[in-house]
Design a protein that fits this description.
The chain is α/β, with parallel strands linked by helices. It has two domains: about 120 residues, Alpha-Beta Complex (Aspartate Aminotransferase, domain 1); about 230 residues, Type I PLP-dependent aspartate aminotransferase-like (Major domain) (Aspartate Aminotransferase, domain 2, 3-Layer(aba) Sandwich). It is built from 14 helices and 15 strands. It has a seven-stranded mixed β-sheet, with helices on both faces. Strands 11-12-15-14 form a four-stranded antiparallel β-sheet, covered by helices on one side. β8, α9 and β9 form a beta-alpha-beta unit. The chain is globular. The protein starts with a helix and ends with a helix.
Length: about 375
């Protein structure tokens, strides 16, 4: 198992930057960049084998199944969370859909589109800027077909109480859709307790993959009810044919596979290998410790106002002068995202205490200069 120092050494960008912007996208790991460069070179000089590239999504399916501890037959390879959600939306029985009003749009608009088809879509508004678990529970009733939520939402770093939502959904016979894009790879997901009916994740954030590699994991009892959003030559059992023939979907979740963007999956394989070489509990503990330390340090120095109780590896701080903060972070080589007056940072296993120190010092400096 890789230590955090060994893991950090895989990211050359960290020699130049304090990278706290993984909630947007991480820098490339050496193994991922080398795999993509080799693929580009073979493409450039005509030495590539497209059939080998085409086997990469299936290999990635196997790796994600190992990472999550589920059967491969439950995993579909798709291109985005929006595609995964739209696939589930097309496959749902009649009933209400409940979703937080401030959800990320990839986990919001596919459900809202159902309104035009006669579904009732209930948007649960935030209170004091945050979606409350108790409000989501209160919105459920026996008419509810699905509750859709994110494990962690990057707008504030709040970590959803998924076991509580699972119990509430079970109480009314509703299904649970979880978007784990902002957590999987840094935080553990207890599938035995959460038992999501559908789990979607795009790998280009905490899983370190190129954009375009995503997965939909479906509970065994719902696999047969999946309706492919984009039926194609990939929707049938292998060996896949190309021309003519009957439309008979695969018996597994692979029925929802879509035609792959090859290079995304070529890069996903070494990224998944890296994650499989980590101790998930140690990674989560490391990431949560750094985020908590950052919040505490910022609060102590009054450099900003951390949003309370996020409980995740993502921290959000309200700042009074975003333009000055942006300039100072840039001068200090700290990569993070400013969303209005909110500074968002995220801590992966490749971050360390020095990253916390430099980020807090940049904010403290702004405070001193303003005083």
């Amino acid at each position: 198992m890789l230590s955090s120092e060994q893991f950090r050494s895989r990211f050359p960008a960290l020699q130049r930057h304090v990278w706290l912007d993984t909630p947007a996208s991480p820098p490339a790991a050496l193994e991922v960049a080398h795999a993509l460069q080799a693929a580009l070179d073979s493409w450039l000089y005509g030495d590539f084998d497209w059939q080998e590239w085409d086997r990469a999504p299936g290999a990635a399916r196997s790796s994600v199944a190992r990472l999550l501890g589920v059967a491969e037959e439950r995993v579909a390879v798709v291109g985005s969370v929006a595609e995964a959600a739209a696939t589930v939306a097309k496959s749902l029985p009649p009933g209400r859909i409940v979703v937080p009003a401030q959800e990320f749009r990839s986990n919001l608009f596919p459900w809202r589109q159902l309104e035009s088809a006669g579904h009732e879509v209930t948007l649960v508004p935030p209170r004091d800027g945050r979606t409350r678990t108790e409000d989501l529970v209160a919105a459920l009733d026996p008419r509810t077909a699905l509750l859709a939520v994110s494990d962690v939402l990057s707008i504030d770093g709040h970590r959803t109480d998924l076991p509580a939502l699972r119990r509430a959904a079970d109480g009314v016979g509703a299904r649970l859709f979880v978007d784990a894009t902002q957590s999987l790879g840094a935080l553990r997901l207890d599938l035995d307790r959460v038992r999501p009916d559908y789990l979607a994740v795009h790998g280009y954030k905490w899983m370190l993959c190129p954009r375009g590699a995503a997965w939909l994991v479906t509970a065994p009892e719902h696999v047969g009810g999946l309706v492919p959003l984009l039926p194609s030559w990939k929707s049938t059992e292998p060996p896949h044919g190309y021309f003519g023939g009957p439309y008979v979907t695969a018996g597994s979740a692979a029925r929802c596979d879509t035609s792959p963007a090859w290079l995304s999956w070529v890069g996903a394989l070494p990224a998944l290998d890296l994650l499989l070489d980590l101790d998930a509990e140690r990674v989560e503990r490391h990431c949560l410790r750094l985020a908590a330390e950052f919040r505490e340090r910022v609060a102590e120095t009054e450099a900003g106002a951390p949003l309370p109780g996020s409980g995740s590896h993502i921290a959000v701080v309200r700042v009074s002068d975003p333009d000055a903060v942006r300039a100072r972070l840039a001068r200090e080589g700290v990569r993070a995202t400013l969303l209005g007056d909110r500074l968002r940072v995220g801590f992966h296993y490749f971050n360390d205490g020095g990253d916390v120190e430099r980020a807090v010092d940049a904010l403290r400096d702004r405070k001193r200069r303003a005083s």
